[in-house]
Amino acid sequence: MNIDVTEELIDRYIDKKNQISDREVKFSHVCICGSIGAIVGMARVKVPALDLMMFASMGGYVVGAMLPYAVKKIKIGELNYQIYMNKGILEGLEKEKKQKIDKVKTLRK
């Protein structure tokens, strides 16, 4: 029945969300993204000044280092949305099931 399949799907989404929440972001990913951010920050400086390039690289590193954490939050948010939508579908199926049961009861009388 569709209700059982939807409940199983919700359980799988919850399990996957818990797995993603429990995993830590790898330090190597933070370093790689930070380094790429620093390179991009330095490349965007148009004036050849050392102090501007240093500030740009530091800012780029910070923004790049935050990227893996943002991706993790986006994945968790997407799974929360899927859980929310499937629970809405489940409520609709439950209402439809109740209406059909009531209709069958009235036909039997």
Please explain how this structure is put together:
The structure is a single chain. The chain is 89% helix and 0% strand. It has helices at 2-22, 27-43, 50-108. Helix 1 (2-22) packs antiparallel against helix 3 and helix 2 packs across helix 3. It has 109 residues and is mostly helical. The two termini are 26 Å apart.
Write the layout of secondary structure elements.
Blueprint (H helix, E strand, L loop, with lengths): L1 H21 L4 H17 L6 H59 L1
Helix pairs in contact: 1-3, 2-3
List keywords for this structure.
single chain, 109 residues, mainly alpha, 3 helices
What can be said about the biggest beta sheet? none
What portion of residues is helical? over 70%
Strand composition percent:
under 5%
What does the overall shape look like? rod-shaped
What gyration radius follows from the Cα positions, in whole Å?
25 Å
Low-confidence stretches: none
| Secondary structural class | mainly alpha
Topology as a string of helices (H) and strands (E): HHH
Please work out how many helical segments DSSP would assign.
3
Q: What is the tally of beta strands? A: 0
What would the average pLDDT be, to the nearest integer? Answer: 90
Straight-line N-to-C gap = 26 Å
